[in-house]
Amino acid sequence: MDGRGGGAEQHPAPATIRITSPTGRWILLTTVLGSSMALLDSTVVNVALPGIGRDLDADLTALQWTVNAYMVTLAGLILLGGALGDRFGRRRIFVLGVVWFAGASLLCGLAPTPGVLVAARALQGIGGALLTPGSLALIQASFHPDDRGRAVGLWSGFGGIGAAVGPFVGGWLVDGPGWRWVFLLNVPLALLCVPVAVRHVPESGDSRAHGRFDVLGAGLGALALALVTYALIEARQQSPAVVAAAVAGLAAAVAFGYVERRRPDPMMPLGIFSSRQFTAVNLVTLCVYAAFGGFFFLAVLQLQVVVGYSALAAGTALLPTTVLMLLLSARSGELADRIGPRLPLTVGPLLCAAGMLLMLRAGPGASYAADVLPALLVLGLGMVTLVAPLTATVLGSVDTARAGLASGINNAAARAAGLLAVAALPLLAGMGEEAYRQPGAFDAAFARAMVWCAAVLVLGAAVAFATVRRPGPGCRRPECRTHGAVTAPPLEGERGS
């Protein structure tokens, strides 16, 4: 690669840029803007769900699909998105992802019906799968090795701040100009991000990338997730179509495993699961992020439907969890380095379970200071305790050369767990399609859902206690030390090419 941007200016070659240089600052601005688009959407859409339901006359099933249509394509294609960047140029795929994401966001903001909104959200997830791995890959491929750690820290820190302000901004938009602006906000962000990326960010790729893309594997993975999600969400109907979708989803999952085992260059090499530690920590990930996905989907509805908060108040109410993550996640990682990951990965889920059970106090007439805030503080401390050690254990459980792949698989697993929880939890809790319009019924179902979430977290703690061990010496350490997102663990890419 010649390192040229879209304009006439000659840029330094990749992996030589210093963080204090003008180009370095432009790269940070571009990647923060791009990743913040996806982070904002992952946190603000939940706040907008009651408003979407009222405006589009959508039932609970449509609201579940509003969240999950995005997650299906994002979780199913995020590994392929990273591979496309390595092959065709990280800046090119990143810019394509930003443009795609903004176009789909515009469709979301203009959607006249729930069906159109769900379809646009699925398209939005494709854009997210292209831009999310690309933002970190651009930093790792561009900055001088001496500056790379600081650059990643700034990127993850600013991204975490974006995740923190997301619910606040989302609530303000929903209560003010309306929920459509939650999506339309991405358009001006993209209009700022794309020209800066084209002009100031050098192109980079991976000369080792070769062979065919595993499009079949990615398609089968996304299809399996979509069909199983459909079966869980639509199970209330008890129709033959639901049974057929469940069977077809399981068949697609089996076919995915077969294809990945037989391909010479699979998207997800199944041999990586020969590491017992890697398999175990991904089981913990599935438990933890299933509970988180279900909690953050239902908690915002509980605060608005039952407690009576406005969208702004509900979004702001959840800020303590993200603020604690931003302030303490790096220190939690340092502590886990000293004492090993087994204790944090056991205690963290138990604290989160306790926080979710404390949310049972958030009923009609609940006081924020006495009933809601204590639950969120305990939950936030649990998240702080477990997220950084989880990432470190994933990276330390495989060869250093496969650490980026291991992180991508773990990130995709977390997102898949969240979308399956959003699909299954209302069914398990006995929520009807009109439950979010009936405060009493929703409150009772929310209480049952929190018990389910707590039980899954206790299972995760048990798996961690029984299986997780300290990684060996010389293993890869996380570069994302500060983390504020609550929907998935931090994504670690390959170190500079």
TrEMBL record:
Assigned keywords, A-Z: Antibiotic resistance, Cell membrane, Membrane, Transmembrane, Transmembrane helix, Transport
Location relative to the cell: Cell membrane
InterPro entries recorded: EmrB-like, MFS, MFS_dom, MFS_trans_sf
TM annotation in the entry: 26-49, 69-86, 93-112, 118-139, 151-173, 179-201, 213-233, 239-259, 280-301, 307-330, 342-360, 372-396, 408-429, 449-468
Keyword Nucleus appears in the UniProt entry: no
Membrane protein topology class: Multi-pass membrane protein
Superkingdom to which the source organism belongs: Bacteria
PROSITE patterns: MFS
Major location category of this protein: membrane
Pfam families found in the cross-reference section: MFS_1 (PF07690)
Entry protein name: MFS transporter
Lineage of the organism: Bacteria, Bacillati, Actinomycetota, Actinomycetes, Kitasatosporales
